[in-house]
Task: structure prediction
Amino acid sequence: MQATRIVAIRHGETAWNVDTRIQGQLDIPLNAKGEWQAAQLAKALAAQDPLHAVYTSDLKRAHQTATAVAVQQGLEAISHPGLRERGSQQVVPMRLHRRIDRIHARVGDGHGAAARQRNSRRWPRG
Result:
């Protein structure tokens, strides 16, 4: 019996990733760099064992990335809303660091804006 290989891939870059904004389930497309990343990913995966199916969320950024991979493999990307990332109706799009600062301000653990400035070289971007 041959093992099933599952490859999990995150979508390419969006303008909101660059701006450190939380996208949640908002339908934000890839930017030019994200399209390039998807094309590079498709080429890299084509050099490996062939894929037999490509499943994706129905959000543009994920579907664009999956489609680039699927086309390179001679497949069609199969989308399903159940593959979306988890979301919350209460999440309002804002910069990631603002959200984190608000959370830390509530718990008072000293990791808000001042701590983030001290550790800026370790702050994640996108």
